[in-house]
């Protein structure tokens, strides 16, 4: 089913007719509705996510000693987020240093043995095979020393990971570990995102992809709870479909001034697929009472009658699409409460 949204403001003609309410003779504002050429669109449910976000994970094992940032805090790249107990890492560094010392001693012994064997071989006191064995022992000792040095460097780097820093400048979305808990390599500690770069991610059924076209796509993002609409900065259709749901993921980048929008919010993306004449009424003119939705229509005799409607979606200009119940050229009241008083006037 196609959900539609419009980007053109309907040309609504306010009538100066003096239709009076029963409360002291104040005029009821009215509007004459006419079909307008408006955009057609597909609507897809979406979720807001950050274009740039990072899950900061532990790279060393140890108890969390301090957490310097909490959810909602603004951090800069390189800021210290957490400190992890380094005692275990310190022991690993000490063990690596001991391995280096042992490997160095073996290397010195193997070098001396090789030099003695070369001297003896020069005087034909030992065989060539003995010299080869001494050379092989020296090469092995040198390789073991290099491995020990690499292990010490790795232990030093791991100890540095005990101070967890922010990989980007942004806002802490979640803190996933509290002081006193154990950190394990790979365990998430914090989630950070850049608030100035957000996008809506929607999964569009494959049968709708053809109607979206191959050119530059246009879209608007609606936040149903607040009635807010934002123009998409760009639209990207990922070149692969999910084999289980047969949907393609579409990324709709929001403008940089999307204040109040945070990752995880629900949204609705309207992809423009053409235009067609549509009949709309201002949302403020619609009366909703339980399951009844309608407007007050002027009867031409100074009063109004309630007309039940079948309506569609609310559009970006705070108007509601009328699917059935009204025709072009009819006049409706913009204030349904005052129009109701006129209707009940004896």
Segments where pLDDT lies below 50 for 5+ residues?
1-25
Spatial arrangement of strands, main beta sheet: 14-13-17-3-12-16-15
Compute the number of structural domains. 3
Largest sheet: 7 strands, antiparallel
The CA-CA distance between the termini, in Å, is: 45 Å
Portion in beta strands: 35-45%
**Helix/strand/pairing category:** alpha+beta
| SSE order, one letter for each helix or strand | EEEEEEEHHEEEEEHEEEEEEEEEEEEH
Description:
The protein has helices spanning 87-122, 128-160, 206-212, 336-344; strands at residues 13-15, 30-32, 36-50, 53-57, 62-67, 74-75, 80-84, 163-165, 170-175, 182-183, 188-193, 198-205, 219-223, 228-231, 234-241, 247-253, 266-278, 280-282, 287-289, 292-298, 304-308, 310-314, 319-324, 331-333. The chain is of the alpha+beta class and 346 residues long. A hairpin with a 4-residue loop joins strand 22 (310-314) and strand 23 (319-324). Strands 14-13-17-3-12-16-15 form a 7-stranded antiparallel beta sheet, with helices on one face. It has 3 domains: 1-35 and 279-346, Beta Barrel (conserved putative lor/sdh protein from methanococcus maripaludis s2 fold); 41-52 and 194-273, Elongation Factor Tu (Ef-tu), domain 3; 58-190, no CATH class. 25% of the residues lie in helices and 38% in strands. The model is unreliable at 1-25 (pLDDT under 50).
Task: Kindly summarize this structure in a few lines.
By secondary structure, the protein is of the alpha+beta class. It is built from 4 helices and 24 strands.
Can you lay out the helices and strands and say which pair or pack?
Elements: E1 13-15, E2 30-32, E3 36-50, E4 53-57, E5 62-67, E6 74-75, E7 80-84, H1 87-122, H2 128-160, E8 163-165, E9 170-175, E10 182-183, E11 188-193, E12 198-205, H3 206-212, E13 219-223, E14 228-231, E15 234-241, E16 247-253, E17 266-278, E18 280-282, E19 287-289, E20 292-298, E21 304-308, E22 310-314, E23 319-324, E24 331-333, H4 336-344
Antiparallel strand pairs: 1-2, 2-24, 3-12, 3-17, 4-11, 5-7, 5-10, 6-9, 7-8, 9-11, 12-16, 13-14, 13-17, 15-16, 18-23, 19-20, 20-21, 22-23
Helix pairs in contact: 1-2
């Amino acid at each position: 089913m196609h959900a539609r949204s419009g980007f053109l403001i309907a040309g609504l003609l306010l009538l100066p007719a003096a239709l009076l309410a029963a409360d002291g003779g104040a005029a009821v504002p009215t509007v004459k509705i006419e079909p307008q050429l408006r955009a057609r669109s597909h609507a897809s449910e979406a979720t807001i996510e950050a274009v740039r976000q990072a899950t900061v994970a532990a790279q060393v094992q140890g108890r969390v000693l301090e957490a310097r940032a909490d959810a909602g805090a603004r951090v800069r790249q390189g800021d210290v987020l957490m400190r992890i107990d380094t005692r275990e890492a310190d022991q690993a560094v000490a063990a690596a240093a001991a391995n280096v010392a042992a490997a160095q001693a073996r290397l010195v012994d193997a070098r001396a043995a090789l030099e003695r064997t070369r001297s003896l071989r020069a005087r034909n006191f030992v065989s060539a095979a003995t010299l080869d064995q001494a050379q092989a022992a020296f090469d092995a000792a040198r390789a073991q020393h290099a491995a020990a040095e690499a292990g010490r460097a790795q232990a030093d780097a791991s100890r540095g990971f005990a101070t967890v820093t922010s990989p980007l400048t942004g806002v802490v979305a979640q803190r996933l570990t509290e002081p006193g808990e154990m950190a394990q390599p790979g365990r998430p500690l914090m989630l950070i995102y850049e608030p100035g770069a957000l996008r809506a991610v929607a999964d569009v059924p494959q049968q709708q992809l053809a109607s979206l076209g191959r050119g530059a796509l246009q879209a608007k993002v609606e936040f149903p709870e607040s009635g807010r609409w934002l123009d998409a900065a760009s639209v990207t259709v990922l070149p692969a479909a999910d084999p289980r749901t047969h949907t393609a993921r579409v990324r709709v980048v929001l403008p940089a001034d999307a204040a109040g929008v945070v990752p995880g919010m629900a949204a609705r993306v309207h992809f423009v697929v053409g235009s067609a004449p549509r009949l709309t009424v201002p949302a403020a003119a619609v009366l909703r009472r339980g399951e009844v939705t309608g407007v007050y229509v002027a009867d031409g005799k100074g009063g109004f009658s309630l007309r039940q409607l079948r309506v569609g979606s609310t559009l970006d200009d705070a108007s509601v699409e009328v699917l059935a119940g009204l025709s072009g050229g009819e006049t409706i009241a913009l204030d349904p409460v005052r129009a109701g008083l006129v209707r009940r006037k004896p």
